[in-house]
Amino acid sequence: MFGTGLAFTQSKEVFMSEKRVLRGVTRSKGNAAGEALVSEQPISWAPFAIPNDTGIISIFEHKLRGQSVKDKIVVYPTVYGSTTGSIGLFFKVKGSKVGPKAIICRQVHPIDIGGAIAGEIPAVDSLDQDPLQAIKTGDWVEIRADEVGKEATVTITPKA
How far is CA 32 from the centre of its chain? Predict the structure, then answer.
């Protein structure tokens, strides 16, 4: 029994040693932790792209079509679409509760900033590494973003 606990501790230490910390800029403040969902393609938060009642990506020909954003740390280059995306992000997070826990972009668009602030979820960009390269779908991501315009930290624990 003792040996099993020790092995678990040892493997956990190895897993934890793989953590990486990136630094970026807080666009919407807050702290969050969750599994990453990474898209190389832009995302729209508008109801036609990710329905407000399901949180499942329905964008035609999108590589993540059929994937849920619910409770994920969604990582993508930037947004596309109109200001309905801001309302859509807010509603998914606060209304139907099928939205992400946080967003990370190469460059967070003002559309997303408005939705993230209203939805009270962190939004981070301008990381010291390209988030689309540094974070993989399934990685555990922790965000600490305490003050808008100031440094945010993104801690990545790779998926085992």
Answer: 9
CATH pick for 19-157 out of 3.30.420.10, 3.50.30.10, 3.20.20.70, 3.20.20.100: 3.50.30.10
- On the 0-12 / 13-18 / 19+ scale of CB atoms within 10 A, 68 is middle
Task: Determine contact, residues 13/149, Cβ cutoff 8 Å.
Answer: no
Average pLDDT by stretches of 10, the chain with 160 residues: 38 59 98 98 94 95 96 96 90 96 96 96 98 97 98 95
Q: Is 68 a catalytic residue?
A: no
Neighbouring residues of 102: CB distance < 8 A, sequence distance ≥ 6: 30, 32, 34, 73, 74, 116, 121, 122, 123, 124, 141, 143
Which residue out of 82, 86, 96, 126 is catalytically annotated?
A: 82
Domain limits of the chain? Answer: 19-157
